[in-house]
Specification:
Distance between the termini of chain B: 20 Å
Helix content of chain A: 40-55%
Largest sheet of chain A: 5 strands, antiparallel
Structural class of chain B: mainly alpha
Strand content of chain B: under 5%
Number of helices of chain B: 6
Number of strands of chain B: 2
Oligomer: heterodimer
Order of helices and strands of chain B: EHHEHHHH
Distance between the termini of chain A: 34 Å
Helix content of chain B: 40-55%
Radius of gyration of chain A: 23 Å
Order of helices and strands of chain A: EEEHEEHHEHHHEEHE
Shape of chain B: elongated
């Protein structure tokens, strides 16, 4: 039976997952494997596991609960070991590395910030600030304009929007970077122009939230800035 | 600005939070070479760079049309928008003609919904 792995932590962690059900249709019971002063939180791996909502939920829920009891190193969703012995062998082989990571991340959480433009608002702002673009738009609107002319104009607008995404992204990040120990930039999912994760000490979380509010103020006329977390340190457990 | 956190006290993760950080759960986290990773069909779309989506004739036309129909004479934006609810950006795409940003987002969003089962409200 292969073994699904949720995360690693210290053996001294309260490991508050009694009775928790893991991934899979039946929700295999969550178990703890201890080795070298470390603990791996695992369950039996179901056959044919896919990224179903239920499974992603179970994975994140278990990691969230563990995070409430202390620092945890989250696995990427879907990590499966051949068996329990292989998990214990991994803990033994890299015990110092994992213990070091746990120490480095102790008392810190991941906070994720996404900023997205409201399309009408940002386009209106671009036109209001760029006379040439505005007059071009007026000419097309009153005269109709051929398909080619519309495409040419739209391309210019897209380029202006790209510049604006970069500029507004820098404005948002400038407010936030100084309040985090580490910053990891993510892909622009869902059209956002900022997708960044920050490693923030627990006692800095309020200051960080205040910085996010300032970032929101800086771009309020054209964009929304949202804060997600606290999360297990998904973005800060790999080499850096 | 909105702040989306986990419900404390043992509830399952809220759909809103899960939906908005799904790429962290699927693309980040510890990777161990000797362990395998289960097949994640359709996940690749999450990392599509939005600029690739934007750079098409279709998108240029939609931007042009969006600009053409804008009212520039006054600030037509409803006041007090930011920070009311967590789903501001999701709701903004609904109830009006879809623009280029929303169009690109919807394509990606639909795939994410397939994976996480929709943008349900926090429970």
């Amino acid at each position: 039976m292969s073994t699904y792995v949720y995360g690693f932590t210290h053996a001294a962690h309260p490991l508050n997952v009694d009775g928790a059900r893991g991934v899979g249709a039946a929700g295999s019971p969550v178990r703890v494997l201890r080795q070298e002063g470390l603990a791996a939180v695992v369950s039996d791996a179901p056959e044919g596991l896919r990224a179903k909502r239920r499974d992603v939920e179970a994975h994140t829920w278990i990691l969230e609960r563990l995070s409430e009891g202390g620092t945890v190193l989250p696995m990427r969703f879907g990590t499966v070991a051949p068996n329990d012995s292989a998990v214990c062998a991994e803990l033994t082989l890299h015990a110092r590395h994992y213990a070091g990571l746990l120490t480095k991340l102790a008392g810190k959480v991941e906070l994720n910030v996404k900023a997205v433009h409201r399309e009408d608002d940002v386009l209106r702002d671009l036109l209001q600030q760029d006379r040439a673009l505005r007059e071009w738009n007026e000419a097309l609107r009153s005269g109709g304009g051929s398909r080619e002319a519309q495409i040419e104009f739209g391309e210019e607008v897209a380029a202006a929007l790209d510049d604006r995404r970069a500029a507004d992204g820098e404005r948002v990040l400038a407010e936030l970077r100084t309040h985090a120990e580490h910053t990891v930039i993510g892909p622009p999912v869902n059209g956002c122009f900022v997708n960044a994760s920050f490693l923030v000490p627990d006692d800095e979380r309020q200051a960080f939230a205040a910085a996010v509010a300032r970032a929101q103020d800086a771009v309020a006329t054209v964009a929304d800035v949202d804060l997600y977390g606290p999360l297990p340190p998904y973005s800060f457990v790999t080499e850096s | 600005m909105s702040v989306v956190t986990q419900p404390s006290g043992g509830g399952r993760p809220s759909g809103n939070l899960l939906y908005n950080v799904i790429e962290l759960i699927l693309d980040r986290g510890l990777v161990i070479d000797v362990f395998v990773r289960v097949a994640l069909v359709g996940i690749e779309v999450l990392t599509i760079d939005a600029r690739v989506v934007v750079a098409s004739v279709d998108t240029y036309l939609r931007f042009a049309e969006a600009c053409n129909r804008l009212d520039l004479t006054g600030d037509a934006r409803p006041v007090g928008l930011p920070g009311l609810v967590g789903s501001v950006t999701e709701g903004a795409a609904e109830g009006k003609v879809k623009g280029a940003i929303e169009g690109a987002r919807d394509a990606i969003t639909d795939t994410i919904k397939d994976i996480v089962g929709g943008d349900r409200r926090p429970r």
